[in-house]
Structures are given as C-alpha cells and as structure tokens.
Amino acid sequence: MRFDEITLKLNADPLIQSAIREDITSEDVSANSVMPAAMQGEVDLICKQDGIICGLLVFERVFKLLDEKTEVEFYVKDGDAVTKGQLMAKVRGDIRVLLGGERTALNYLQRMSGIATYTRSVADLLKGTKTKLLDTRKTTPNNRIFEKYAVTVGGGNNHRYNLSDGVLLKDNHIGAAGSVKRAIEMAKEYAPFVRKIEIEVETLEMVKEAVDAGADIIMLDNMTHEQMKEAIRIIDGKAEIEVSGNVTKENIERLTDLGVDYISSGALTHSAPILDISLKNLHAAEA
After folding, report:
1. pLDDT score recorded for residue 286
2. Residues 230-282: pLDDT tens digits?
3. How many angstroms separate the CA atoms of 3 and 151, rounded?
4. pTM (2 decimals)?
5. What is the DSSP track for the chain?
6. Which of 136, 146, 163, 222 is the most buried (most CB within 10 A)?
7. pLDDT score of 194 more than 90
8. Which CATH architecture has domain 124-270?
9. Is 208 left (phi over 0), alpha (psi -120 to 50) or beta?
C-alpha cells in the first residue's frame, strides 16, 4: 500500500470528505463566531511524544479539500522518527479553514502515526530473521486504506487488502465446505489460477490434510509452540507458513525461533495507541 496524489484523489478523497462532513454538517459555529470574515493565519504542527510520523499527505488533504489555497510546509516526511516537542510543519490559510479542519486532520495523523509507531516496534523484534510481519483485515471500517498504509510505513507488510484480493480459507469456510481437503479443492476449482490458496489450520491433523490437498500457504492459528514446530516438520517446505493468533509486541519474540515465512498480527491496527500530536500557536499572518 502506497500513497501518492493519484491514490489520494481516487481512493482517499471520498473518505476524507465524509470525515469532514461528519465534523461539519452545516457550519463550524465556533470558528464563525470568532472569525466572521476570512483572515489569513498560520499554525504549528507539533509532536507531543516520540514516535514514527505517518499520514502527512492525508493531514494536508483535509485542509486542501476545505480550501485548495491552504499551504502546508512540512519539515518531516512519512516514516521519520519524531520527538516530543518537535515542530513538524506549518499550516497557512484562512483561519476558519485551519480551525474547521484541525480535528479531522489530526485524527488521521495521530491514528496513522500510532499504527506506524507500534508496527515499527514490533517489526524491530523480527530483525535478523527471514520472517515478514503482516497485518490483517481487523481495521476500522472505512479507514483500511489509511491503516494499511501506516503498517507499511512502520516496516510491516500488507496481507490481502480485502475479500476480493486473495483466497484465505478460515474455520467457517472449512465448516461450510465440509473438510480442509474439500475447501481447498473447491477453491482451486473456482479461484483464478494466479491466486494462491491459503488455509487456516488449528490441529496437526488439519496440517496434514492441507499439505496433502496442495495448499500454497498454511496458517498455523493459535497453536502451542511445540505444535507449531511439529507442523513445520510435517509441512517440510511443501507450502509457505504463516503463524497467527493474538500476536502482540509482548509475545512475538517467542515465535522468532520458528523460522516461518510470515507472522500476522491484528494488533498492528486494532490495538495501536495514537501518537499525540497538536496544532498550536494559531495566529494571524500576512496574506
């Protein structure tokens, strides 16, 4: 997942506009009370804790959608390590726009930076191994494009973007099909040949069945360490291996000795705290 001007306009703008409308249904009563007419102003973007910054283009886009004349001068870029008290940007434009867009712009920036910061801390624990850190679809509704981008900025990798993006057969798919073997057979018959077939397994018997049925990727879900070691022996290079199941920064190191291809963690997006960031020192400026 990458962000550029085209991606923003095609995919993100409608979501950002919806977020702005959520915050301003008709007018910003507070801003219009103290600023009845247009006046140029400037405000500082300041980091209030150490972390990894992410979402600067989205932050800027909020103000640009309110008024294309708004100018943002950045002193950092996505992926940079930032520190408490650091001046990261100056925003210039109609004071009413600066006030009206403040919360929405910061909400995106804080959330995305929090995910990037948390992801970096987890990815650092996998340094020196061949294992790739993956996210999941456990994202905030209508914010997936922002949150998955933040994972990549933090040093993680994206699993499938949505249900149309790849085949992942989980417990309920297996239940619907009747067995691991049948689920894989049906997926191979239906899915385009360019799609890999991944299946989630919870027991060693399911591992054996998945290998025999020719799964491309086998996800070991919520297994004990000893079970995972035995599963890896059974798979014996016949499929790529992903490990999943309540993986967090606190427990991922116990998995590093396994040498699997992937470790996925929903916590990257659903449990990352925000990075505290503020717009401060708003004042009038020359036009």
Report:
1. 77
2. 999 999 999 999 999 999 999 999 999 999 999 999 999 999 999 999 999 99
3. 12
4. 0.95
5. ----HHHIIIIIHHHHHHHHHHH-SS--HHHHHH--S--EEEEEEEE-S-EE---HHHHHHHHHHH-TT-EEEESS-TT-EE-TT-EEEEEEEEHHHHHHHHHHHHHHHHHHHHHHHHHHHHHGGGTTSSPEEE--S---TT-HHHHHHHHHHTT-B---SSTTS-EEE-HHHHHHHSSHHHHHHHHHHHS-TTS-EEEEE-SHHHHHHHHHHT-SEEEEES--HHHHHHHHHHHTTSSEEEEESS--TTTGGGGGGG--SEEE-THHHHSPPPPPEEEEEEEE---
6. 146
7. no
8. Alpha-Beta Barrel (3.20)
9. alpha
Structure tokens at 130: 């061949």
**Tokens representing 76?**
């950092």
Pairing type for strands 197-201 and 167-169 reads: parallel
Phi first, then psi: give them for residue 239, nearest 5 degrees: -155, 155
Total residue length of the chain: 287
70 vs 42: CA distance, rounded Å: 10
200-214 pLDDT, tens digit per residue, is 999 999 999 999 999
Name the residue among 137, 147, 131, 125 with its Cα closest to residue 250.
Answer: 125
CA distances from residue 206 to 13, 186, 231 in whole angstroms, order as listed: 44, 16, 10
Domain ranges of the chain: 5-122+273-284, 124-270
User: Are the C-beta atoms of 122 and 265 separated by less than 8 Å?
Assistant: yes
Q: Which of 43, 36, 77, 109 is nearest to 277 (CA)?
A: 109
Give the span between the Cα atoms of 27 and 96, in whole angstroms.
10
Distance from C-alpha of 62 to C-alpha of 24, rounded to nearest angstrom = 12
Architecture (CATH level 2) of domain 5-122+273-284: Alpha-Beta Complex (3.90)
3 has a pLDDT exceeding 90: no
Structure tokens given for 185: 């057979």
Catalytic residues: 138
